[in-house]
């Protein structure tokens, strides 16, 4: 059940930007940027699912006993939400940055997916095992 809520939390942060129709023309690159946000949210979700309950190498994300847990999920979701808001605010003021953000989002998506593939190949530790 925790995995379902984890998926909902991460997916929701990826779609926190305003998608309502407005009376302004869409700047060049904004649609592709929004697509890159979807891939970034998906890659974050995949990485979180592949890491759940396993030893976490990143000390900022490691929860009790060094495992990836709800604390890590919350931090990843908050970071993703912050990135989305920052990119949206910057893009609305300076649309020329959409191209840069799009490239960065796709690049991070590839990196996170690569990490997730590696994580899926790692065994889960025995219950009660403390990672160090």
Describe this structure in words.
- This protein has helices at residues 2-14, 30-51, 70-93, 98-121.
- It is an all-alpha fold and 132 residues long.
- The protein contains four helices and no strands.
- The model has no long low-confidence stretch (mean pLDDT 85).
- The chain is elongated, with a radius of gyration of 17 Å.
- 63% of the residues lie in helices and 0% in strands.
- It starts with a helix and ends in an 11-residue tail after the last helix.
- Helix 1 (2-14) runs antiparallel to helix 2 (30-51) and helix 1 runs parallel beside helix 3 (70-93).
Structural class determined from secondary elements: mainly alpha
How much of the sequence is in beta strands?
under 5%
Radius of gyration: 17 Å
Q: State the helical fraction.
A: 55-70%
Order of helices and strands: HHHH
* Major sheet: none
**Distance N terminus to C terminus?**
27 Å
The number of distinct helices, counting runs of at least 4 residues, comes to: 4
Instruction: Please give the oligomerization state of what you see.
Output: single chain
Q: How many strands appear in the DSSP assignment?
A: 0
Give a nutshell description of this structure.
The protein is an all-alpha fold and 132 residues long.
Secondary-structure blueprint of this entry?
Blueprint: H1 2-14, H2 30-51, H3 70-93, H4 98-121
Helix pairs in contact: 1-2, 1-3, 2-3, 2-4
